[in-house]
Amino acid sequence: MRNRLDAIDRCVTLWMHRWGHPAHRLCLALFFLWMGLLKIFGAKTGSSLLAHTIYLGSPETMVVMLGAWEAAIGICLILPPLIRVALLMLFIRLPGTLLALVLKADVCFGTSIFEPTIEGQYIIKDFLLFSAAMVIGGTVRGGHHHRPPQHLQSAGS
Fold this sequence. Notes:
The structure is a single chain. The chain is mainly alpha-helical. The protein has six helices and no strands. The chain has helices at 2-40, 48-51, 59-78, 83-103, 105-108, 118-137. Helix 3 (59-78) packs antiparallel against helix 4. It is elongated and about 60 Å long.
């Protein structure tokens, strides 16, 4: 019974090893594309806080620009040759996100830094997305094509 469970576990783990990174990249790409298009087409999103923090134009213009930037990140993540461009765009966007947390702390947090508001949660999520993109960045040289770790390979492989 233990050998059978081990074989099932090995099979599932190998499947996740093979498909995890592509699924991760596609989901992140679709998320950025979706959120970007929402901003471009005028849907209300949490980005208005960023638009009021980055003083390069009116908040209305900044929301559309942020939307176009996010949509471009999504498109670049979909196209493997452009993954590095997406990572660069995310890296450029990150300081603006951090700036919003610092300059608009009263809007981002409730009574303490351990109690983010909805706006704060939206911005903090960007750090999670950036770290997820870093994992994808680790595959741009074919990292996901490497052989599975030895402990995942069957004894007969």
